[in-house]
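ugh ok fine here u go
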Amino acid sequence: MAQDFADHYGALPWAAMYSSTLIRAANTAKPIGKAYGIEVLHDAGLSELAYGEWEGQSMEAVMDSHPEAFAKWVRDPAWHAPTGGETANEVACRALNVVDRVRRDFVGGNILFISHKATIRILLCSLLGLDVALFRHRFSCPVASVSIVEFTDAGPMLISLADCAHLSDDLRALPGT
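structure:
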């Protein structure tokens, strides 16, 4: 998937590339950075939503072990976190801090962010002025998809959402893509 991305977007001039510090994103970023000849800068602000005690458990197991907390989180993840995890608002704050810092450091040029499904959807909601509580209900984010946001004088403009055209037919047919 990373190689398909590198092949498809390789002609674009990249000013910088940032990745979550989590293994999946870092492993995805490595071949892309190598293909483009740019250093991958890792930033924990791009990490996936922290699910706390729910990490690695099925939805059914969480519903059984934390029914009240799960119901609150499903109703409003902006203000209710998974047990021991973080809210969508907290994710939005840390991810927006990364975007703001990067925009100050790189006034022009294309910046590539490699992150995770919930974080990407929360960040898109934040940038576009949508309620982050609705991140699961407003945007699809297949694995290895590409969303493009252009920062204009009028604010962030969504150019492309969850595009998978760069992936081969075999990869697009996999579950989750």
